[in-house]
Amino acid sequence: MTHVYSGAAGAKQLTFVLVHGSWADAGYWKETAAELNRLGHEAFAPEYPGHGGDPRTDVTHAEITEAVADDIARRDLRGIVLVGHSFGGSVIQTVAQRIPERIGRIVFMDGFVLLDGQSVADQLPPPVVQQFQQLAQASGGQTIPMPYELYRETFANLADGPLARYLHRQVLPEPAGPLFEKLDLKRFYGLTIPRSYLYLTSDGVLPQGEGYGWHPHMSGRLGVFRLIKAEGDHMSTVKTHPGLIARKLVEAGRD
């Protein structure tokens, strides 16, 4: 199911397509999209296979790409600001390859920026990859549950305890396959679509240090790009400070 957020009263300025990450669904963007509406913009948050009530666990990255691209095409959206959070960064890379003519700017919000031939799992420290592989194996091989301790310390590290526990209760096991798929991104690196990176400075999902981190490690792969920074973590800031996230997305997405 696609969550649609129509623009508020007033002249339309920007059209955002918001792509969520792993261990989330399109509802991740609900509060931020409402704030974008309040600022006079349109926001669409497409859902993709294996998420948002879809019980499938054998989905592929290509199916996710197709679902997002088809949603954009079906609505005949053009000149969009395509935003990808976390795993959604890899999705907006592949969607951009598929429908570049519909995209005005790409924005990564603490999103993975993969090099050609890489997977999202390739960006994680080996102990985390090993933990995910063990969790997937214990679940039967197709999903990865998110342990509360890991979620609390890295995904929702700015939240208080009650909020972190509430958010974690909404989390469903993540289909494992797309996280480990190697992606062909040759076309992405030949595109001339403008790019931005919104860096949430307290996000603990990737460790800071050589070879890891959202910025400058991930962002630096974009070549020429616009850098926007805000205080925030991976999962809770969109709920506690959606107005801040919306304003920063506008900064990242404007011409």
Mean pLDDT: 95
Assign an overall shape: globular
Strand order of the largest sheet: 1-3-2-4-5-8-9
What distance separates the N and C termini? 31 Å
Major sheet attributes: 7 strands, mixed
Question: How many domains make up the coordinates?
Answer: 1
Q: Tell me, what is the CATH class? A: Alpha Beta
Evaluate the radius of gyration: 17 Å
Given as residue ranges, the uncertain stretches (5+ residues, pLDDT < 50) are 7-11
Percent in strands? 15-25%
Q: Say which CATH homologous superfamily is assigned.
A: Alpha/Beta hydrolase fold, catalytic domain
> What is the tally of helical segments?
10
**Fraction of helical residues:** 25-40%
Pfam family, one: Abhydrolase_6
Keywords: Hydrolase
GO molecular function: hydrolase activity
InterPro entries: AB_hydrolase_1 (IPR000073), AB_hydrolase_fold (IPR029058), Sec-Metab_Biosynth_Hydrolase (IPR052897)
Task: Offer a concise description of the structure.
By secondary structure, the chain is α/β, with parallel strands linked by helices. Helix content is 35%, strand content 17%. The strands form 2 sheets. Strands 1-3-2-4-5-8-9 form a 7-stranded mixed β-sheet, sandwiched between helices. Strands 6-7 form a two-stranded antiparallel ribbon.
